[in-house]
Amino acid sequence: MVRHTPGPWFNNGGIIGPKSIYNHSDNAVCVVGTPNAQTEQDTANARLIIGAEKLLTFAQLVSDFFTNDSAGHAIYLKEQADTAIDYATKGG
Questions:
Q1: What is the four-CA torsion angle of 53, 55, 60, 64, rounded to 10 degrees?
Q2: Where are the domains of the chain?
Q3: Looking at the predicted structure, is the pLDDT value of residue 17 above 60?
Q4: At what angle do helices 73-90 and 40-67 cross, to 10 degrees?
Q5: What 3-state class would DSSP assign to 11?
Q6: Does this model's pTM top 0.70?
Q7: Cα→Cα distances 75→30, 55, 68, 71, 78, Å
Q8: Of all residues in the chain, what percent carry a pLDDT higher than 90?
Q9: Distance from first CA to last CA of the chain, Å, rounded?
């Protein structure tokens, strides 16, 4: 199975041109939007892409929770859910 580019991912700001999403090694993962034509939707899409890895991690934690229910796990899941939501809606 091919794995995705390791994160964390972040946005370069893309004030004029497209929003480029980079990984922790400053390698471009993808580009969202077109040069000189950034929209609010492009920004929202970039935030969702940045949050994708955290959303995947959260889904895996939820799966693990239902497989191996343990005390205190629910609080950790809530914290991870809040982090994933922040990344997907605010970019981190």
A1: 140
A2: 10-90
A3: no
A4: 170
A5: strand
A6: no
A7: 33, 17, 15, 9, 5
A8: 0
A9: 28
